[in-house]
Specification:
Elements lengths: L1 H27 L6 H19 L5 H11 L13
């Protein structure tokens, strides 16, 4: 299992290092930065937003939200069944 994580961690470390290098160049020498480097910096920033905004909602939470959205508060009292 650890053997499968090593390539993923290595590629993540390389990508993170590349993004940090590009971001530092963008801050320290903006006149020397080309469009490809700018695209790498913007793309890395955009990807950093994904883990925050794309999160799976557990089933228990989604069922509580659905129950709370019902007019009777999810109690089943107003369903018309006697």
């Amino acid at each position: 299992m650890v053997e499968r994580r090593v390539p993923a961690l290595a590629s993540a470390a390389v990508a993170s290092g590349l993004w940090c290098w590009v971001a530092l160049r963008l801050v320290l020498a903006p006149a020397d930065v080309g469009p490809l480097e700018s695209a790498v910096a913007v793309g890395g920033w955009g990807l950093s937003l994904l883990p925050v905004h794309v999160v799976a909602v557990p089933a228990a939470v989604s069922s509580r939200r659905a129950a709370a959205a019902e007019p009777d508060g999810g109690t089943g009292a107003g369903d018309g069944v006697s």
